[in-house]
Amino acid sequence: MGRVTAAPKAPTIYDAVPYRTLARPATHPDRMAVLGRIFGLDCPHPNAARVLEVGCGNGSNIIPMALSLPGSEFLGIDLATTAVQQGAERAAAAGVTNVRLEVGDIAELGAEIGEFDYVIAHGVFSWVPDHVREALLALIRRQMRPNGVAFISYNALPGDQIRSVVRQMLKVHTAGIEPATKKLAAARAFLDLLARAPDSAADIYGPLLRSEIGKVILSSDDTLFHDDLSEYNEPYYVSDFMAKAGRHGLQFLAETPFHTMSAGGLPDEMVQLLREMAAKDIVLKEQYLDYFRCRGFRQTLLCHREAVLSRAVTIERMRQFGYAGDVPRAEEPDGRPGVVAFKHANGSAIRTDNPMTIGALDAMRAAAPRSVPFEDLAKAAGADDEAAQQALAGSLFQMFGAGLIEPRLHEPRVATVVSERPRATPWAAVGAIPEGIATLYHEMADISDAARTLLALADGTRTVPEIARAAAMPEGEAREGLEALARLALLVG
User: Fold this and answer.
1) What is the pLDDT of residues 54-64, one digit of tens each?
2) CATH number of the domain that residue 362 is part of
3) How far apart, in whole angstroms, are the C-alpha atoms of residue 360 and residue 324?
């Protein structure tokens, strides 16, 4: 596995301008399975599944998944021969044997690829012609097993409306300009010109447009070329997207990350309206949430129409997960007796005087980066009886919805302490890019040059003193650096 198994196609624009492929946390089968099981879908365990990614690029999303889920089988499909070949070489170099990369066209894929429990299509749907979108939805319906989950990302309305205006300007201005390098140069020169356009009195369009132009200016060449200069880039209202999916026998499961389904921070009247809508039609609720938040991008999970879902969360479902959350207590205490403030690095925060919630968060932080099984968490939180555990389950669900913690079904082989001869993940040697490195929990970790040196030296053959000497740094500093890498889930247990 890890090899190209189809004849090369004609060169594509993705061969001419390679598109950066990163680890996308929301696409990981564990995260998809958790949301499926929370809402009553009996999804296969993520470490005993078949996973398909269409538009896999050079495999930088699917290969580290395969590494962390050795019991599952992965297939990646992409049109760009160059990217697929590079990915196959990197998978082989990392020793990942449960992934296969193939050159292929979504519109031509048939039953020969087999059935899958999880299907991933990140950065595909909005950026292909409509017949390919239809082919993708038909593929999911046909090849996804009954309890499977599919992930599709797409540009969303109303938030993408102004960006669409910028894209149209760029497409008109750069029409007919070849090759890609000249097209990119012309686009950047025009963006600089647009950014200098003066405001008119009481103009609300100008500031909005310039804000979006500023984002495009800061984007990388591959993003500018494949997103904003793309021949195809179709945003969707979620209601229209789901109508399209529904015609293929698919229904809405959830949005991921899960906290994006939350109405937290909105006025009470909006929250009440959303609750009423959710009780009738979850898609309508999501549509209005997009109106209120002006969302411009969605990562939607789909399942088969025949699947019976239950939005009422139960303790039985919550018991099956481990829970992870590296959420420190806030440096500034709340000031009220018994109230403790916690703040996540992503900005999510909570203030609580509930001893069970406090105990659970402290226990999760102590175990980080690993998760804590529900039963162990209940003991740490002092939830000794059924009623207390019911309350704990509700609290965990609320914290998950707030983006503070993460339920898991699978724990990869993560080293929580630095061993005598520490070993970095096999992906560290071949998967590190300027943007960072994928961890065993499928997060992108931004690490320093010194940390990259330690990762390269931690190959399982050297002791910590030997690593320190080779890195030309004090042993204490090397050990601290390795401990930090372990906390980032970059060392193998």
Assistant:
1) 999 999 999 99
2) 3.90.930
3) 10
330 SS3 class: coil
Contact 346, 25 (CB under 8 A): no
Total domain count, the chain? 4
Please indicate, yes or no, whether residues 336 and 280 belong to a single structural domain of this protein. no
Residue 426, preceding bond cis, omega within 30 degrees? Answer: no
Write down the pTM of the prediction: 0.92
Q: What is the pLDDT of residues 283-318, one digit of tens each?
A: 999 999 999 999 999 999 999 999 999 998 899 999
Residue 416, by phi and psi: left (phi above 0), alpha (psi -120 to 50) or beta?
alpha
- Average pLDDT (3-28) is 74
Q: Following DSSP, what letter does each residue of 252-289 receive, concatenated?
A: EEEESSGGGG--TTS-HHHHHHHHHHHHH-HHHHHHHH
The last residue of one of the domains, among 351, 376, 408, is 408
Q: Write the pLDDT tens digit of every residue in 357-369.
A: 999 999 999 999 9
Domain residue limits at 41: 13-156+235-304
Is there a single domain that holds both residue 381 and residue 338? yes
Assess whether 129 and 197 both reside in one domain.
Answer: no
And the tokens for 406?
């993460």
Residue the block writes with tokens 């403030």 = 341
SS3 229: coil
What is the sign, positive or negative, of the torsion defined by CA atoms of 68, 72, 73, 74?
A: negative
Using the 8-state DSSP alphabet, how is residue 14 labeled? H
